[in-house]
Amino acid sequence: MTIKPKILVVGSINMDLVTIAKRTPTIGETIIGEDFKMIPGGKGANQAVAAARMGAEVAFIGTVGEDIYGERLIETLGNEGIDISGIAKVKNLPTGIASIIVDGKANNSIIVVPGANLMVQVENLYANMELIDWCDIIVLQLEIPLETVIECIIEGKKRGKTIIFNPAPVQSFDKSIFKYIDYLIVNEIEAKQIAETDEEDYSKLVEKLIEIGFKNVLITIGEKGVLFNEEDEIKHIPALKVNAIDTTAAGDSFVGTFVTSLGSGANKNNAVQNAVRAAAITVTRVGAQSSLPYKDEI
Ligand code: RIB
């Protein structure tokens, strides 16, 4: 029997303002774009939606502004079957947005203006302790204040929860919390920054992250796939060859699918395979939550 994992995501919610253009303009240049879309996003919300679409029970702790984007984004998460009781509306700050340019080569550039995401405070965690108690797994990123993330990791661990940490966008955090993280999921740039190295050999990079205190490390390297440790070995699963049109949220798709597969009883290797398939589908579609696949697609 497949287990339906209970996953709590504590993270960001953004409205993505996506411009599609042949190329990204250079400084001082104006170009004509091809399309514009407003698409629900935010790393936290994307990972929650990815997990829900893979069959997990998902709850979310986050904050939006008292504005139209906030309304719409809460509604979207609710429509995915996600428990939205932990999402607060805050005054004085607008809902987070991400200004995204996607070019003709599927590359993107993103500026996030966090707005209300900055108000995911430690108090929000304590106000939603029943969600922390309810879940099996807690998933965190770094688009909300670091002190909230650290408090959540410590409180979650005290309660025996599995902690999945995707420290994106990366910032330095105290080494003393490394030991509380069950799975670290990073791209190659984040991996190097956390390990404080220029190491280009990704197997060695996994080893280095284990050496400094992480138990399970997964490094996603775009088209080259994923490297991770399993039973004293460093394994590599290649990415699927697809016709990529927009890489936005590929990492979020990976995280949400990996965590749901793992929580459903898959071993690490199979969970990574599922996550690689989900990420491959995501890059063939435009946008963040609009591109995340459902379980029957992978
Ligand atoms: O990971 C992709 C996400 O990063 C986008 O949805 C955007 O909102 C930013 O948070």
In the predicted model, the low-confidence regions spanning at least 5 consecutive residues are: none
- The beta-strand count equals 13
Strand line-up across the major sheet = 5-4-1-8-9-10-11-12-13
Strand content: 25-35%
Indicate the structural class.
Answer: alpha/beta
N- to C-terminal separation?
19 Å
| CATH architecture designation | 3-Layer(aba) Sandwich
Query: What's the CATH topology label?
Result: UDP-N-acetylmuramoyl-L-alanine:D-glutamate ligase
Strand count, sense and barrel status of the largest sheet are: 9 strands, mixed
Using the coordinates above, name the CATH class. Answer: Alpha Beta
The Rg value, from CA coordinates, equals 18 Å
Fourth CATH level, the homologous superfamily: Ribokinase
Roughly how much helix do the residues carry, as a percent range? 25-40%
Order of helices and strands: EEEHEHEEEHHEHEEHHEEEHH
> Number of domains in the coordinates?
1
Bound molecules: alpha-D-ribofuranose
Report the mean per-residue pLDDT as an integer.
Answer: 96
| Count of discrete alpha- or pi-helical segments spanning 4 or more residues | 9
Label the overall shape: globular
